[in-house]
Amino acid sequence: MKKYISILLILIIGLACVACKKKDNINEISKNLSNYEISLDLNTETKSSTAILNLDYINKTNDALSELKFHLYPQFFKEDATKLVVSSTKLNDAYPNGMSYAEFEVDRVKIENKDVNVQYSGNYNDILVVKLFNNLMLNNRVNISIEFNFTLPNCEHRFGYGDNTINLANFYPIVCVYENGEFDESEYNPNGDPFYSDMANYEVKVNLDNNKFVVAGTGEKTDVKKVDGKYQTSFKANLVRDFALVISDKFNVISKKTNNINVEYYYFSDENANKSLQAGVDAIKTFSNLFGEYPYSSFSIVKTDFIYGGMEYPNLIMVSADIDNIDDYMNVIIHETAHQWWYAMVGNDEYTYPWLDEALTEYSCLLFYDNNKGYNLTHSQMINASKSNYTLFVTVYQDVLGNLDTSMRAVNEYATEPEYTYCIYVKGVLMFESLYQLIGEKNFISGLKTYFNENKYTNANPNDLITAFEKECGNELDNFFDSWIEGKVIIR
Ligand SMILES: [Zn+2]
Question: How many angstroms separate the alpha carbon of residue 341 from the centre of ligand 1?
Answer without folding.
Answer: 11
